[in-house]
Amino acid sequence: MDEPHLAVLKMARDRLVGDRRAAAKVLADTFEPAKSLNAGRTIVELRTMIEAIDRAIDDEQGAADSIYDGK
User: Between 20 and 30 A from 51 (CA), which of 8, 17, 37, 43?
Assistant: First the structure.
């Protein structure tokens, strides 16, 4: 069973993935260079945050494993 902090991280990740999908839709649908550039930058920033959350989730899961393994 997930600890509450893991659940929060996973919810945050899900929200960022949704935001990234919305930015990708703007990028795909937009013919204005400024909007396209902004959407592209947003996608890069969101990907960075998603990767950071993935590392935090891995870290939390590793910390939980080590606690329960008696390490």
Answer: 37
Distance CA 69, CA 13 (A): 27
- This prediction has a pTM of 0.80
Cα angle vertex 64, ends 58, 70, to 5°? Answer: 135
Domain containing 43 equals: 4-68
The percent of the chain in helix, strand and coil, each rounded to the nearest 5, is 85, 0, 15
Tally of structural domains, the chain? 1
For the chain (71 residues), the mean pLDDT of every run of 10, in chain order, is 84 98 93 92 98 95 63 47
Cβ partners under 8 Å of residue 30, min gap 6: 36, 39
